[in-house]
Design a protein that fits this description.
Structural class: alpha+beta
Pfam family, one: DUF179
Order of helices and strands: HEEEEEHEEHEEHEHEHH
Oligomer: single chain
Helix content: 10-25%
Largest sheet: 11 strands, mixed
Strand content: 15-25%
Length: 301
């Protein structure tokens, strides 16, 4: 995967992208505010109002913890069901089979740290994998997009595998480098629409801050509104600098636009484990091929 060479003003304007072989459609939206990303607004990071330590956070009830665990693990449960169906294709039961003891009990299948499988509809936290119909569309060719939201305004996401050759400091992106904490972090091209976003991996410390939106288990995103709090959390050793990945720009679709593109064969949709995204993998080179391999496909079309 070629790296995107960025200049300091590469993403100051939204870009017009026309996908071939469809009735002309411009991939550009008006500049959207951070409010659409549903990030809880925090005060200045110096006040530390948004970054409470775990010791100061109220302890959730056992019911809350149970509900959180169930909500976080449903993707893994579904993945085990899919893997079980692939490993043990359904067969007609014999006359001597007791349906109460077999048909209602799916086979136990263990999952590795990395897994991915196709799903029929886009959902928050899924991956969009570009198909051959996007070959030649440089921005989206062989991209893997993480869908952050499917909200009422329209789906939003970020391209995971378009690293730049420049750091935040070199790009002079002051909105993503409030205190210099992240100045040496590489900056990724997240999409043609204007906005600075970041992903962060972490556990209860990140979740209990109440500032970031959880995309999938242990993976959160934030905007320029919450980068000050992110820097404060690094100073408090709640997370490390290496747990962040920063993006210049994002992808956005009108309410039904993405579904139309999926039906048209421009994107394949997949669920995956958080380890597939792997924020520590700075380049993400080969992610497109890796996801296809995990799905057991050489192609997605």
């Amino acid at each position: 995967m070629e790296a995107c060479c960025l200049s300091s003003n590469s993403f100051t304007k939204a870009m017009e992208i026309v996908i071939p072989s469809m009735k002309p459609r411009i991939f550009v939206q008006p500049k959207r505010s951070c409010a659409q990303f549903q990030i809880k607004k925090a005060g200045p990071y110096s006040t530390a109002t948004c970054c409470q330590s775990q010791s100061n956070s109220p302890s959730p009830s056992s019911r809350d913890e149970e509900n959180s665990s169930i909500d976080a693990d449903w993707r893994s449960f579904r993945a085990r069901l899919v893997a079980g169906e692939q490993a043990f294709p359904s067969q007609e039961p014999s006359p001597t089979t007791d349906p109460n003891t077999t048909l209602n009990q799916p086979p136990s299948v263990s999952l590795g740290d990395k897994w991915a499988h196709a799903i029929p509809e886009p959902e928050k936290g899924c991956l969009l994998i570009a198909t051959e119909k996007l070959d030649g569309v440089h921005i989206f060719e062989r991209t893997v997009v993480l869908l952050l939201s499917t909200g009422p305004v329209g789906p939003t996401g970020i391209i995971l595998n378009r690293p730049s050759l420049m750091s935040i400091k070199e790009m002079r992106s002051t909105t993503l480098d409030v205190s210099g904490t992240f100045s040496d972090r590489p900056l990724f091209f997240g999409g043609p629409l204007e906005e600075g976003l970041f992903l962060v991996s972490g556990g209860d410390g990140v979740r209990k801050s109440g500032v970031f939106e959880e995309v999938m288990k242990g993976l959160f995103y934030g905007t320029k509104e919450s980068v000050g709090c992110a820097a404060e959390m690094v100073k408090r050793n709640v997370v490390g600098v290496g747990d962040f990945r920063f993006f210049d720009g994002y992808c956005g679709w009108a309410k039904e636009q993405l579904r139309d593109e999926i039906r048209g064969g421009y994107w394949a949709v997949a669920a995956c484990s958080p380890n597939v995204i792997g924020l520590a993998n700075v380049g993400s080179v080969g992610l497109w091929e890796e996801v296809l391999g995990l799905m057991g496909q050489k192609k997605v079309w």
